[in-house]
Give the backbone structure.
Amino acid sequence: MISSPAAETGLDAATAELLAGSLREVLAKNPDGPGLGSALEELGWDEVLADDRAGATTLLFVEHGRALATSRVLDDVLLAELAPSLPAPGAGTRVPFYPLATAAPVPPGAPLAGLVLGGWEGVTEVVVPVALDGRVELALVPAGQVAALARPAGGFDPASRWLLVEGPVDGLTEHTLPDGGAWEHAVAAGRRALAAEIIGVCAAALAIAVEHTSARVQYGRQIATFQAVRHRLSEAHVATESARSILTVAWAALDHPDGGVGAARLAKLRAGWAQGEVMRHVLQVCGAMGLSLEHQLHRHVSRAAALDALLGGHRALTAQLGADLLAGADFDPVVEI
Amino acid sequence: MTGLAGAPTTAGPVGDARAGGPFAEDLDAYRLALREHLRAEPALGHFRDRRYPSTEARMADHARLERLLHDGGWNRYGWPPAAGGLGGDERHRAVLYDELAAAGLPIPGQHMLLETLGPPVLRFTPDLAAEHLPAYLRGEEWWGQGFSEPEAGSDLASLRCRARRDGDTYVVTGQKLWTSHGATATRLVCLVRTGTPQARHRGLSMIMIDVGAPGVTIRPIAMANGDNELAEVFFDDVVVPASRLIGAEGQGWAVAMYLLQFERAMYAWLCAAEALRRLRELRGQLAAGAAAGRTLPADAATRLGEAYAHLVALRARSADTVRRLAAGDTVGPEASIDKVLLATAEICLHDTARDLLSDEFLFATEDAPDATAPAAAAAPAAAARSEEIAQWRTDWWFSRSATILGGSAEVQRTILADHVLGLPKETKP
């Protein structure tokens, strides 16, 4: 109805449809956990990724969002960008640290304030970006040190399984490695993936709202026949589709002189903005049901908000973008015909 | 300098016009050559940062810009040789608008309606296009769009302006309202009723009417900013040759639907290009204001970032739609998304300008020499500043039409609800 998997990716329609189906099955079996990695491996996901990185990444994360899954696939996206700047990993697992706010590297002497995407089983080190003399360096911090500062990030999205990390790490700047621009590109890659994931959550929430309003009868008619309801759903659709368009553009911007960093920020910003629009509208048209624990909608609302906050919430990114422009940054047209 | 029209050279952008210009098949070469031309051509300097006292003055000057672009061959790309063009497709036109805006130049106002009216005339009545489009591209004539009527705003199917067949002519009687460019255009492309009112959209036809024909009366409508952007048009037994029919009799709705694709795609892209130029200008004006000691509102960065993000989002969507049109795809009801995004971006840009220019936007002392003004040397700068702000006031009013003209915001959302989301239909009272 709203858009086929093919419209979301560069894969051909039949392949995308087939892959989306497989992903839905895999995600339904492994909604939250380490099983997803091996299931994707079985699916031959690495090959799909090698064939069409944009299409495959978008497809995976849209479905991840639609399923409200909580895995560490996003870690892999960042780590792939960071790998060239880091020594080969040992036996254990390496995970990235996600600073809050605009995902800026940690200033010298500042405490950590950010997230990691899951528990510590098998994790041996955490990659922390550090700001040193105007450049970015990467610190490999033993997992135990970060774990000591971590507690479950409950709050608005208790199902996220993320951990909130707050506090100082001793000697953070002592053994850092030059990042060679890798952190900026890791953030950009993460933002493209997150934009897709948010789009998936939004599409699922909109589908719930369309279904609900088409079935629910008040005043003797389906409530989706009321103009006020219809127009809210249309606006939610516009916001979601707009996020899709700019995500496509962000993938096409990889050969831009900035390596696609600017376009990725815009894609994430617009996806974050879209989830705000979509959730406001779907919550209203689903009525009190959408606010209840037993109904599934609240899970989408919470997850979308949490995903928005990861690697830069849309409000923080908008302010940052505007400050750059006020300071004289180019009004990059981003898109050409 | 560039080759003249018809000159048998491949060095300039014109080349052998009958077969299409040298850039017809090479969009990137067109883009680069155009970019260089716009950068280097001294005659274009006149049009940069130019403000006009009225719509009439603006259109007259923009016609000169159009002529310059035509003589170099630049605005002929995207139109077929048979209609005065040099070949290529919609993407060439989109590139023209983008490059003009990037070079700090206005997009000729005439091209706004060329984008909506040109394609259907070309598609349904090639002879008429061959006869009149060349002059349009030269800036010698332009057309207005006569769709709405007093009793038919967004609800076009209920329009009543009538065209009665009489031998080789039609006799048109009735009224059009909110006719775009009605005050300055030389011809009007009108949707008229040739069938019964009960036939609704099946009884409509599209026809081109000369403004100078006996029985046509134009009454310009001043918008809230004082500009005659629109008009009211009265037809009193106006005789129009049947050859002026665009498409067959009774095909008017199909012609209008074909036209709408271009309105949603090309017009949106054109507006986005222009809006990006205006946002860039706004930043310059804010910086100048700050340098002169004015304080920026605390949320200035966020507002500017938001306006820019809306514009880039519109471009992302619109570029895809333009490419689909150029590939010959039919753009369906999903193009209402483009229209909603365009309106959102336009409204946001102009609200941002209003709020960030704040008191300067709201208050002005007109023609009153300021007793406390510094030395006379500063006066031209102050006058230029006040003209810049006045332009934003004018544009702010026009931006409000983004959710009204060409199918209101409500109509767009209803189209999406019906045809894209597939919601159960709204019940009629």
Observations:
- Chain A touches chain B through 46 residues (CB under 8 Å).
- Chain A has twelve helices and ten strands.
